[in-house]
Write a structure and sequence with these properties.
The chain crosses the membrane at residues 6-29, 36-54, 60-78. The chain has one helix spanning 2-79. It is mainly alpha-helical and 80 residues long.
Length: 80
């Protein structure tokens, strides 16, 4: 009788302890893992995105700037 009550009490305590321990461990592990994963993913994604965006933006900007500059320069040069 007492042994079954004790084993029941022990199993409840053990399950509570394990659930608390596992929840704390998993929350810490997942937070660290998620932060590292997000940092690597975001840095990689942002570097690729910025390089593509900057290359497109710079090419468009340079083409517009050069076309305006050359048109002004050629108009001045040809008018003389």
């Amino acid at each position: 009788m007492y042994l079954s009550i004790y084993s029941f009490y022990l199993s409840i305590n053990l399950s509570i302890y394990l659930s608390i321990y596992l929840s704390i461990y998993l929350s810490i592990y997942l937070s660290i893992y998620q932060s590292i994963y997000l940092y690597i993913y975001l840095s990689f994604y942002l570097s690729i995105y910025l390089s593509i965006y900057l290359s497109i933006y710079l090419s468009i900007y340079l083409s517009i700037y050069l076309s305006i500059y050359l048109s002004i320069y050629l108009s001045i040069y040809l008018s003389c």
